[in-house]
Design brief:
This is GAF domain-containing protein. This protein has one domain (21-96). The chain is 41% helix and 9% strand. The protein contains three helices and two strands, in the order H-H-E-E-H. It has helices at residues 26-46, 50-64, 92-96; strands at 72-75, 82-86. It has a two-stranded antiparallel ribbon with strand order 1-2. The chain starts with 25 loop residues before the first helix and ends with a helix.
């Protein structure tokens, strides 16, 4: 079910293609999803930094769930507190509260 257009709402774009998610066909969305999955697996096998992989994972989630913001938080075993490890498009003031 599509969300009705909100006043001043910026349509979400697919991070892999830059295309407006609302205008993509189901086949396009599946192709983009597979491409993002492939990129994440390549990143893991090539030894990229974990923050890069986590950012890609957030982009994948945001592609699967339109109109969403994804972040990854990790537990500090010593302090028992969560910290933001990745939040590529989440507003900085929000993530600063968890750093």
């Amino acid at each position: 079910m599509k969300q009705p257009p909100a006043k001043n709402r910026v349509p979400p774009t697919d991070p892999a293609t830059g295309v407006n998610v609302d205008q993509q066909t189901e086949t396009d969305q599946l192709d983009n999803l597979l491409e993002l999955q492939r990129r994440i697996l390549e990143s893991i096998t090539s030894g990229l930094e974990s923050v890069t992989i986590l950012n890609q994972l957030c982009q994948l989630i945001e592609t699967i769930v339109p109109h969403s913001l994804a972040s990854v938080m990790l537990l500090n075993p010593e302090s028992g507190l969560l910290r933001v490890a990745s939040s590529p498009i989440f507003p900085a003031p929000g993530t600063a509260l968890f750093r």
